[in-house]
Amino acid sequence: MLKKINDSLAGIPMTIASGIFLAISLALSISDISVLIDPAWISVFISGIPLLYLSIWRIIHNPGISKISSALLISIAMIAAIAIGDLFAAGEVAFIMAIGAILEEKTTERAKKGLKNLIELAPQQGRLLENGCEKMIPAESIKQNDILRILPGETIPVDGKIINGNTSIDQSIMTGEALPIDKAIGDNVFCGTINRFGAIDITATKVGENSSLQKLIRMVREAEDKKAPMQRIADKCASWLVPVALFIAIIAYFVTGNIVRAVTVLVVFCPCALVLATPTAIMAAIGQATKHGVIIKSGEALEKMGKVDTIAFDKTGTLTFGRLEVSDIISFSEETDNHRLLFLAASAEARSEHPLGKAIVAYAKEQGIALEETSDFFMEAGKGVYAQLKTEKMFCGSEKYLTEKGIAIPSRIKDMLKVLRGQGKASILIAINNICMGIIALSDVLRPTAKDMIWKLSKMNTQTVLLTGDNQQTADYFARQVGITQVRAELLPEEKVNNIKEIRQHGNNVCMIGDGVNDAPALKTANVGVAMGSMGSDIAVDAADIALMSDDISKIPYLKRLSNATVNTIKFSISLSLCINFIAIILSLTGILTPTTGALVHNAGSCLVVLIAALLYDREFE
Predict the structure, then answer these.
(1) Residues marked as catalytic
(2) What is the pTM of this model?
(3) Coil, strand or helix: which one is 39?
């Protein structure tokens, strides 16, 4: 009951009402108008009760020196001002503290839907093979070594090993790879990944809480729990502010014999400007970032971003667009030029559901090539396709697929395949009438601003690292393109988390930038997580502290400069507020300031801090 009353008084509407009554009290005082009940009493009640509640709660529940907080000092000053009849001073310090609490709360609110969405990805059932019969059972009922059948389009319910069939698996949830991975007998598959093509039978190897997806969920939950709320700077100083303020006030009373001077010291010593320095600067910076399409979810994230010295990037969807495009058409036949090779390959792939085939067809249509209908189309999942166009029999697929069909692969073509693999490209071999005629290579597309962004970060003495689930050759190729020298490839989500932890153990402050579900644990584990917002996974966005809503990674250097400026502004405002307090204490001891005028000076200091913070909003950081 008491907490409900406290929460209602601490809300925005009641705080506004408190400010209005405080202003009325000041106006009446200046006009020498007497009223039966000073309106400042209402301000004291509205803003003072939550302040007293907070200070008492901390004394009861906080351990050790943390029992002494800025709320306790301001409560003492408020009670002292009431004791000598200066209600305006009492209401003013309580009101300023209430504003600080609201501002801080607004900057630390965070979306918590990510874990719920991740849990919803967990498969609910699986198809058990038993005595030659299929039956659907709940995923939690699957046991180790059970035989399961996974049909095209179904989500794999547990970790397992393929014992029958070939297929392509979309592992983007685990590795972030843009391409489905071809799988055959003996290959491992992971819980939560999607079977795209052929039907397969697997034997369950890791079930329940031991599966890859459940580990992913567990890592996000653990990382979420480790995120401590931002601690007020004023409370960090309270362990010495409270005793020092009381000591000076007591000395002032015994030396001057004037209780008013002692109370004035307590009023001007209140760290309201100190309390406001952090949340106001952060709110201004968050507003500035929002104008540039950068959503910052908490003040803590902005403060930490200013201390970041290492930025780790995912590749697919982050440094690249995460979409496949035809990059090379290479004909090895004088009779078949590149245009005809593309025509034949696209016609053969027209009925294919494989992403590589679809990309080839889309590219051909963009080039204005009219495709022809093929006959005898047949697709072998995870390998390639066969189709006949008039008299030409075509095989399009991997080197292994063509070899299985008895088609010889000349050494010069094998050499070219090695070159293309070294460039991080996927290759489709095209054979016509049992002769390998050429290669069509596809590649993810590098963001044009990536290289310049990495260069700017290096000029800011910020290290960059590539953490990706892609194969080593692909990762090395894209890293060279943008200028990243530290590359860690073929990483599962757990391994990304371990790499982030390792970097942090060396004393680095790490920012992780990613876009997929698989990046969520790493985003949580890093000091600061940044997600690609418009195309990124909802789970990645929810797991991150900051989201780039336009997917423009050129904003990363801007974000770093903004964070640095915010931290510097906070430090300057804190120093300024301490100087103002020091001068006000001297004036209070000499009797120049009274509790009321001291409260006004104290209020002016708070307004100055807010003004300095507001200047962040319109500064240029590009």
Answers:
(1) 314
(2) 0.65
(3) coil
